Amino acid sequence: MAPSEKYKNRIELLQGTLDMLILQTLQWGTQHGHGIGQAIRANSGELLRVETGSLYPALHRLEQQGWIKSEWKLSENNQRAKYYRLTAAGKKQLSNEQGRWKLLVKAIAKAMKPA
Predict the structure, then answer these.
(1) For the segment 33-66, what is each residue's pLDDT rounded down to a tens digit?
(2) Which residue segment(s) compose the domain that 31 sits in?
(3) Residue 75: inside a domain, yes or no?
(4) Residue 38 sits in a domain of what CATH number?
(5) Number of domains in the chain
(6) What's 77's DSSP letter?
(7) What's the burial of 81, exposed, middle or buried (CB within 10 Å: 0-12/13-18/19+)?
(8) Which end of the chain is more exposed for a tag (fewer CB within 10 A), N or C?
(9) Which of 43, 3, 1 is nearest to 26 (CA)?
């Protein structure tokens, strides 16, 4: 499949959804920024691709909120990388976001099939 076809049906993220996806990814363990982006893409069946210009500002914002913490470590390639982990406050925020997401999905489903 050609690269242009591969992402032809890519879905644009709703505002705020990226934060939830990052928090969800970090729920599975500590990860560096590039790894978070790769995990989101892989776990979405290659439909969601988070660009660097969106990912790193979101990570910075989540860290400022206290939902994630970071520390510098050596990556698998022996390069310095900033690794992120979910905090207790981040776990609570993820739970809140998941609840809002479920409500949004229900509302959209209702709007698509009105009575």
Answers:
(1) 999 999 999 999 999 999 999 999 999 999 999 9
(2) 17-108
(3) yes
(4) 1.10.10.10
(5) 1
(6) T
(7) middle
(8) C
(9) 43
